[in-house]
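Saturday, quiet lab. Running sequence design on the structure tokens for the scaffold JK sent over.
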């Protein structure tokens, strides 16, 4: 499952936005054409001459950046290859940002320092997002700050870095195999495509934007989903070349209260934050099935943000915000069942799900059953 994905910047709710963070990569089942080789880096920001590569040993201790930011800066390309940003402080006044990478599903990690990346408050990296473009190509962005719209880019897993302005340069009519599609956070949303060389273009097939602030969701089959604010769902099954629009499953216009969730892309769910309703499609939004909620809507109507998680088998987990009980529904079932074993709701980060541990750390899973802890400390 990442395999494919699309990342989202902005949005109404932090965890719902993070859960939509998805990058389109090779390995999906959708129809694709071979793409031309990546463009060279911008000529006015040439890549430094290669030097002797460091040994890749991470410094100790290496800190996670708090559970929320760590989710935003952790990503798995497939079940084996993943990246996360960590901080190392040799002394209180001198801290560094490192890009850690794994090629064995998180059992072991290597890392390289991100050149000239400042650290923010609480020793967090001063970035707004991390986009993983391939097994080796990664960009991190800082937007609206004293380093306004700056991008760091590596094509060798962090051994060498370039730093250049983040801006749109041209257009494109598809999302290549090794690219990241990013929906701007405020309506009308515009889709930006970051190519494997770190440059960014506007997707012309939905040029002009759509009235959405829910961002993009991408399934493991490569399908791309956008739920807009006017009651339509836009789905592309050919990497953004063409789009099909269908209506939401209710006649009532919900005006932004719905969140769209998918893991497989074959099954997708709409969850109404305010009315506590759930629908599922098994055919790319051509038809929808209503699934009764397993708990009643409380009088104060707490948000379901952070209480929903799609599962790798096409099902859905949902947590009662009052009792904290977690319920599951399978991809072809119409009834939620309560899980007797307590579980934490996680967030999809590419090909894996990541969730907090009871002691403040993070763990990740490819199947939602077997979990591996990220071997980094939480900053005390």
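Result came back. Writing it out in full:
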């Amino acid at each position: 499952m990442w395999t494919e994905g699309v990342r989202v910047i902005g949005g109404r709710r932090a965890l719902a936005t993070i859960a939509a963070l998805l990058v389109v990569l090779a390995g999906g089942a959708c129809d694709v054409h071979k793409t031309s080789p990546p463009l060279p880096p911008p000529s006015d920001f040439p890549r430094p001459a290669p030097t002797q590569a460091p040994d890749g040993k991470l410094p100790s201790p290496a800190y996670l950046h708090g559970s929320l930011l760590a989710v935003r800066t952790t990503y798995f390309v497939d079940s084996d290859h993943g990246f996360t940003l960590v901080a190392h402080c040799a002394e209180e006044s001198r801290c560094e940002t490192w890009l850690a990478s794994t090629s064995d599903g998180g059992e072991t990690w290597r890392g390289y320092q991100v050149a000239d990346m400042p650290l923010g408050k609480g020793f967090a990296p001063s970035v707004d997002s991390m986009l993983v473009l391939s097994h080796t190509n990664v960009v991190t962005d800082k937007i609206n700050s004293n380093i306004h719209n700056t991008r760091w880019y590596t094509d060798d897993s962090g051994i060498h870095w370039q730093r250049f302005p983040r801006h749109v340069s041209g257009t494109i009519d598809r999302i290549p195999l090794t690219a990241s599609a990013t929906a701007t956070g405020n309506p009308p949303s515009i889709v930006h495509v970051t190519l494997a060389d770190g440059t960014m273009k506007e997707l012309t097939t939905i040029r002009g934007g759509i009235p959405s602030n829910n961002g993009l969701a991408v399934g493991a089959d490569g399908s791309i989903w956008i739920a807009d604010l006017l009651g339509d769902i836009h789905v592309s099954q050919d990497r953004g070349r063409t789009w099909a629009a269908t209506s939401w499953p209710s006649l009532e216009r919900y005006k932004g209260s719905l969140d769209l969730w998918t893991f497989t892309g074959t099954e997708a769910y709409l969850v109404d934050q305010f009315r506590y309703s759930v629908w599922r499609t098994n055919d790319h939004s051509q038809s929808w099935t209503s699934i009764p909620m397993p708990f009643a809507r409380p009088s104060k109507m707490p948000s379901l943000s952070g209480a929903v998680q799609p599962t790798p088998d096409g099902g859905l987990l949902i947590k009662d915000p009052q009792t904290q009980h977690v319920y599951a529904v399978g991809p072809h079932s119409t009834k939620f069942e309560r899980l007797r074993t307590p579980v934490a709701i996680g967030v999809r980060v590419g090909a894996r799900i990541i969730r907090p541990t009871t002691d403040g750390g993070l763990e990740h899973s490819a199947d939602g059953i077997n979990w591996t802890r990220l071997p980094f400390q939480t900053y005390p």
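Notes for JK: The radius of gyration is 20 Å. The domain at 7-33+58-378 is CATH 2.130.10 (Methylamine Dehydrogenase; Chain H). Ask whether to fix the surface positions before the next round.
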